[in-house]
């Protein structure tokens, strides 16, 4: 399997990053709700909603991202937040 950077032109890769950044800014972060961060059912509902929105924008499967955040936050007392998800998958701004 080729690395993502080798399967797209530099312009396509930049557009993908811009699309992902916009998705995080306009869809993910506004849905962050710290009062329900410990409610597993609510977190799963929002994750399903975001997954559908991400796939509609051609961003693939954010379920893998949720698993990565769960792994990253393993053993921490605080529940993972959408801001942590965004930070984990944000590329530096150009």
Rg value: 14 Å
Spatial shape: elongated
What percent of the residues sit in helical stretches (DSSP H or I)? 55-70%
Number of domains: 1
Which terms summarize this structure?
single chain; 94 residues; mainly alpha; 5 helices
Summarize the structure.
The chain is mainly α. The protein contains five helices and no strands.
Characterise this structure.
The chain has helices spanning 4-7, 10-28, 40-56, 63-72, 82-89. It is built from 5 helices and no strands. 62% of the residues lie in helices and 0% in strands. The two termini are 27 Å apart. The chain is an all-alpha fold and 94 residues long. It has one domain (4-89).
What topology emerges from the helices and strands here?
Layout: H1 4-7, H2 10-28, H3 40-56, H4 63-72, H5 82-89
């Amino acid at each position: 399997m080729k690395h993502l950077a080798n399967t797209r032109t530099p312009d396509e890769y930049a557009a993908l990053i811009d699309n992902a950044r916009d998705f995080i800014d306009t869809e993910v972060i506004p849905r962050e709700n710290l009062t329900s961060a410990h409610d597993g059912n609510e977190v799963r509902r929002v994750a399903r909603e975001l997954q559908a929105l991400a796939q509609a924008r051609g961003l693939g499967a954010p379920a893998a991202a949720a698993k990565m955040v769960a792994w990253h936050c393993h053993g921490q007392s605080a529940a993972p937040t959408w801001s942590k998800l965004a930070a984990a998958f944000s590329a530096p701004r150009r």
